[in-house]
Design goal:
Number of helices: 10
CATH superfamily of one domain: Alpha/Beta hydrolase fold, catalytic domain
Structural class: alpha/beta
CATH topology of one domain: Rossmann fold
Shape: globular
């Protein structure tokens, strides 16, 4: 019987290749998120950076999340709420992933912060509806806003966004800056990365994979991949022109390995994270040592500590 975890990781990396960032990282059918980890020891980062502690989270007992089905523009979205106090912490997983991506982090955060924790399934994922047509981060931001509005969570929010969800976060925070007390961007897809040259390179690298995918039998997963890949070039050239509101504090966590196997692309990824952080004094960089792009899986301790720091900062 196929291993469901391995299958989900293969799909995860296919999504990275097609719709998020890492075109060259792996093929559509095979790539393991748990590649050999970087053995380097923790070091002191530059002045604008911080390296998080390596302590592992412990098992905890926390309240179980309740399911809330939200309607926006005719489709249904699944939100999961673990009760607590403010600030509310909202977790948004990367491309091809649903709320279960955070299942090991949520109970620890709930126990240690006493905050309300919210996760959700984007359209085409988990219990949420499929929506035909191209996927756009702006529409996903509208879904998130509708969910938080219907849940009554529209102020003092700590938004945590991984990978592709960084694009959703950028649109969301630009539209609702007063809702967000602070953000944690986990190896997030940021506007600074998508220069004309890098975007053209990603588009060219995707062409054969997209063509091959269109020839395969269509499933929910493949339809979602193609929706996210639609008009990738124009979408990301427009995204490159956006900026994060300077009034909203943010911490960017960058992985040790980045999503890319090639040194040039990996360095561009790191530079984009640093450029984002350097653009305002209320931002900082955290380096997740010994981590692949899947920082919440490889180094949940780094993610938890950084979220706790942000929550304490904005209380």
């Amino acid at each position: 019987m196929p291993n469901p975890t391995a299958r989900r990781r293969r799909r995860r990396h296919a999504t990275l290749a097609l719709a998020s960032i890492a075109v060259a990282a792996c093929g559509l059918t095979s790539c393991d998120a748990t590649t050999a980890k970087n053995a380097q020891s923790a070091t002191t980062a530059p002045r604008t950076s911080a390296t998080a502690s390596s302590a592992s989270p412990t098992a905890t007992t926390a309240a179980q999340p309740s399911l809330h089905m939200i309607t926006n523009r005719g489709h249904r979205l699944a939100f999961y709420v673990t009760p607590g106090h403010g600030p509310a912490i909202v977790l948004d997983a990367g491309g091809g992933l649903d709320a279960s991506y955070w299942k090991k982090i949520v109970p620890v955060l709930a126990k240690q912060t006493r905050s309300e924790i919210i996760t959700y399934d984007r359209t085409g994922e988990g219990r949420s509806s499929d929506v035909p047509g191209p996927w756009r981060a702006q529409n996903a931001a509208s879904d998130l806003a509708a969910g938080l509005t219907q849940l009554g969570v529209t102020k003092n929010v700590v938004l945590v966004s991984h990978s592709l969800a960084g694009e959703i976060a950028t649109y969301f925070v630009r539209q609702h800056p007063h809702w967000i007390a602070g953000a944690v961007l986990v190896d997030a897809s940021l506007p600074e990365f998508y220069t004309d040259g890098e975007t053209a390179k990603l588009v060219a690298g995707n062409e054969q994979q997209i063509a091959a995918l269109k020839k395969k039998p269509q499933t929910r997963a493949t339809r979602q991949l193609l929706a996210e890949a639609d008009h990738y070039g124009p979408v990301h050239r427009a995204y490159h022109k956006l900026s994060w509101p300077q009034s909203v504090p943010a911490t960017a966590i960058v992985s040790a390995k980045t999503p890319f196997p090639t040194p040039v692309d990996a360095q561009l990824w790191r530079q984009a994270q640093q450029e984002f952080v350097s653009a305002a004094p209320n931002r900082r960089l955290v380096v997740a040592d010994r981590s692949s792009h899947d920082i919440p899986i490889d180094r949940p301790d780094v993610v938890i500590k950084t979220i706790e720091d942000m929550a304490n900062q904005v209380r």
